[in-house]
Amino acid sequence: QVQLVESGGGLLQAGVSVRLSCTASGRALSIYAMGWVRQAPGKEREFLTAISWNAINTYYADSVKGRFTISRDNAKNTVYLQMNSLKPEDTVVYYCAAGPKYETVVVNPQNRARYTDWGQGNQVTVSA
Fold it and tell me: If you average pLDDT over residues 91-114, what whole number do you get?
């Protein structure tokens, strides 16, 4: 089991950028595909982006393509979500998750069932 902890959120103004971090403990994060999702109150978790274990492939939801960037530093056991040009509608809880092992081409990265370990979530609040 991989324990994941997100950090970097908080109260932000519209238009700024922020980078969320997801740090793993318990096991090395390097062998897992990693993903980021977000969830608004009363709604389903929305897939945002994923990255293969070796960072060769990345995947993005159309809603964030060009504005959000996923990256990873396996030496630091950390995955990042760079969010630019924040909007008030980005105000939700963001989660990272560990997915399939050793998949360079991640099959169905948007499918929540492919992720086995989740962080506790990190609130991002964007004011207009």
Answer: 96
d(CA 5, CA 121): 8
Mean of pLDDT values over 45-69: 97
**Mean predicted confidence (pLDDT) in 19-32:** 94
Which residues in the chain belong to E strands, given as ranges? 3-7, 10-13, 18-25, 32-39, 46-51, 58-60, 68-73, 78-83, 92-101, 117-118, 122-127
Q: Which two tokens stand for residue 10?
A: 């908080």
pLDDT of residue 1: 85
CB 21 within 8 Å of CB 34: no
* Contact partners, residue 106, CB within 8 Å, separation at least 6: 33, 50, 52, 57, 59, 99, 100, 114
Round the average pLDDT of the chain to a whole number and report it: 96
